[in-house]
Every structure is written in structure tokens, then in C-alpha cells.
Amino acid sequence: MKVLVTYFSQTGNTEQIARAIYEESVSSSSADLKKIEEIDPSQLDDYGLVIIGSLCHGGTLAEPVRVLMNLIPERSSFYLAGFVNHASPLYNKSDDENCMIYLSSLCRKKGIAYLGCFECQGRLAPKLYNFIKHFKHIPEDEWAPMAARMERHPDSEDIENARVFARAILNKIST
């Protein structure tokens, strides 16, 4: 089965996870790794499995991912899975859950077989540090350790969990 791992990344977090999923996929399948902007929806039916990645942005997927997802024709023949990076613990758990719900409900609406979604914490873009700190009203003594924890993600455990997710998805469609 031919696999496409496609993603939108602003800071490199989602790209790191995409590469791990791709490396796992290519070990057992023919696979391609492409940025969202390199994909035309008409190309998706060339794949048996599409794994799409996004950052969680304001409680939903990044706009380029939503645009692509909305352009996918109904009853497409491929399986779809997703992965999401988020800046938790800064946001409510419901924000990244909303991203996963968006993927599953869009697949259901379009009649696409949905295989699940992986989520992990990512590193917050440095240009957003002051904005988020101010927006969330986080005192400096709480912000510094929180920001330091975020800097470590995605870490080796996140990368390994992404590989495990990819293996599980590939196993679902091979059995």
C-alpha cells in the first residue's frame, strides 16, 4: 500500500513528527513525505493511506490543513489518519481534542475511513511567548519553568510514540 505523510508546520514540531511517521511507514510500505502546500487534493486517491499532520491553532487545525481537508472529494478511496502538535499545558485539553474531532467528523461526513489521530506537545514558537504569557495571564515565576518544559518537545518519547502510532495504523490496514 502506498502511504502519504503530509503536514503543515510553522516551527518544525509537526515536521519532526511527520518524519518519524514517514520513516516508520517507509520501513514497510512505499511512502512519500510532502508538505501540505505540495499536495493537490486530486493526488490523494493515488494513496491507500493518507496521514495528515497539523499544529493545533486556536482549538482547530491550521488553516492550510482545513483547506485541503475540505477539498477532499466525498467517498475518496484512501484511509485517513492524523497527528496534531499542541502547546499544552498552555491550552485546554479540549483544544487538541477538537482537532481530532474535526478530523473524524470530516471523514465521517465525506465517507472516508478514519483510523485515528496521534497528539503530542510541541515547542511554542518564540514569537508567541510574550503574547501567550500575557493572554493567559501567567505570572513570570510560573511562566519560566513552563516555557522550559515546552522547549524540550517534541522529545525522544514523543518521536517514539509517533512511530508506535504509525505502526498501529499500518497494522490496522494490513490485517
Folded structure, characterized:
The model has no long low-confidence stretch (mean pLDDT 88). By secondary structure, the protein is an alpha/beta fold. Helix content is 45%, strand content 23%. The protein has 6 helices and 6 strands, in the order E-H-E-E-E-H-E-H-E-H-H-H. Helix 1 links the parallel strand 1 and strand 2. Strands 1, 2, 3, 4, 5 and 6 form a 6-stranded mixed beta sheet that branches. The longest helix is centred in the last third of the chain and has 19 residues. The protein has one domain: Rossmann fold.
* Spatial separation of the terminal alpha carbons: 12 Å
Q: What is the CATH architecture annotation? A: 3-Layer(aba) Sandwich
SSE arrangement, N to C = EHEEEHEHEHHH
List how many beta strands DSSP finds.
6
Strand fraction band?
15-25%
Q: Indicate the overall shape.
A: globular
Q: Main sheet?
A: 6 strands, mixed
- Low-confidence region ranges: none
Gyration radius, rounded: 16 Å
CATH topology heading:
Rossmann fold
> Can you tell me the number of structural domains?
1
> Share of helix among residues?
40-55%
> Structural class of the secondary structure composition?
alpha/beta
**CATH class term:** Alpha Beta
The CATH homologous superfamily is named: Flavodoxin domain
Total number of helices: 6
Mean pLDDT: 88
